[in-house]
Every structure is written in C-alpha cells, then in structure tokens.
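Following the same procedure, backbone shapes were mapped to integers, as reproduced here:
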Amino acid sequence: MKKTVLVTGATSGIGEACAHRFAQGGYNVIITGRRAQLLAELRKKLEAEGAKVLALAFDIRNRAAATKAIESLTVEWQDIDVLINNAGLALGLEPAYEGHWDDWETMIDTNIKGLLTMTRLVTPRMVQRNSGHIINIGSVAGDAAYANGNVYCATKAAVKTFTDGLRIDLASTNIRVTNVKPGLVETHFSNVRFHGDDARAEGVYRGIQPLTGANIADVAYYAASAPAHVQVAEVLVLATHQGSGSVIHRD
C-alpha cells in the first residue's frame, strides 16, 4: 500500500517542494495551510503528477481547528506515515529591545506551538501502529543566534531541543525523528520577514547561490527513504558559500 505524508505550510517554499517530492516518490499527500485557494491550486498540480491528494485548510496556531482537521480524516487517510512539520516563519530583524510584540507572538505560536500541536495530534496513532516518521524543519538559526535574530533563533532552538526530546521519548518504538536545519534558502521567507519589502528581501540572496526548497525536500525525502533501522537524526544544510548562520561569502 502507498504511504501517506502530511506536510504543514505546503502552499509555498520548502513545504510545497516537499509535497511535490513525496508525491513523485509515490506517496499519498495531505497538504495543509491557511490559504485555501493556494492549496486547491497545489492539489491540482500534484494530482496532475499522479498523486492522491487531500487538502486541509486551517491555521496550525489554532489548536481547535487543527484538532478538527485531524479528527476529520477518513479511514483511508488516518494512517500518516510521515509528518513534515514545515510551517514556520520569521518576522522582523530588529534588536530585541525594539522587537514587535505581534511579530514575536506569531513566531512563537507558529514555529513552536503549532509544531507541538501537530506532533501531539499525529504521533499517538503512529505509536499505536509502532511505525512512522516525524520530520521537523528547523534552521541553522537554532544552533546559534545571529544579530537581530533573537526571537526567531529562540523558536528554532526550541524546535531542535523538542525534536531531540521527542526522539528520546520514542526510542523504544520504530518511529524515527529527524531535524532538518536549512541555512540560506531562497523562498518567500525573507519577503515575509520584511513584511513585503521585496528590495530588502532580494538583498538577502545577493552575491550567493542560495539553496532552494527542492534541495531541502530532497534531504527530507532521503531521510524518509533510509532503511528502517537508520534514523537520520539531524541534518544541517548550507549553501556552499555559507559557513554558519551569520557567515556568508558574497561575490
């Protein structure tokens, strides 16, 4: 039987790329996101590639909505083999003492609490089946803070620590847990961070060939495709000319 993957934040960037990569790998795909129209468009693309797709429009920050969506799954969709906790964002790039409350709360509610919600909703059934894989999309920012990254870096550090703790909690099962930590990836990430300032967002990638969403999707798919006894616990993925979260060589 075909396996099923659930991807959060699937309407753009790494999430969209993961949906395509796993569909190409023969998975049935559950795509989630806040924007129903974009989900519908992605569903059509994936179905045109031969995948069986279920689109669920909800905001992972809303625990009640997330719970309702997961509980609504019919028998054919209930057994999720791979959960990709991808939904996340950065907002703002100011010193902590000038940070915006709304930006902070959105990052915490999405990057941490939303990931916790989806993990808590999906993992118990994996435990019952003694089978599954949870792939969390973290960040190089979770390893070390960089200037003005403060709260965003803190949320990704939380993803790293929670992922490690989850892996420990599930060590007695056949469930695998992976943290994929991308560096500089050219998606809508910077445009969102700078609240739609396209010029500022483009400057983030100037002078370097950044990673793409497809590059990260390949890593996630590799981890999911490893033999059952192989757990790819953590992967740090950087562009060739990026040394760390804050060290980037530009032409």
